């Protein structure tokens, strides 16, 4: 199931709010159970992010083929990668 424009707006709103990290992950998974969710360090992803937020880079993934890949097309997105950025020297 592809990511809708409304879902993307809601995800971006939550990421922009800079919520507590654990609460954010739980809330995103609760609101969007149809999407695959991956969290990693931003240094693990070399692709340009779809969006950048206070703590995370947002990448869209397309899992429609047998190989998962990063996509810039929300209509092809079946999941999200939240790549945590090192903010202000935090580890």
Summarize the structure.
The protein has 91 residues and is α+β, with helices and mostly antiparallel strands.
General description of the model:
- The chain has 91 residues and is an alpha+beta fold.
- Strands 1, 2, 3, 4 and 5 form a five-stranded mixed β-sheet that branches.
- A hairpin with a 3-residue loop joins strand 2 and strand 3.
- The mean pLDDT is 88.
Radius of gyration: 12 Å
Strand content: 25-35%
Structural class: alpha+beta
**How many strands in all?**
5
Counted by DSSP, the helix tally is 2
Which stretches are poorly predicted, pLDDT < 50 over at least 5 residues? none
Q: What is the 3D shape?
A: globular
Q: What does the average pLDDT come to? A: 88
The span between the termini is: 34 Å
Q: Secondary-structure element sequence?
A: HHEEEEE
Q: Profile the largest sheet.
A: 5 strands, mixed
Helicity, as a percent range: 25-40%
Question: What are the main properties of this structure?
Answer:
five-stranded mixed β-sheet; alpha+beta; 91 residues
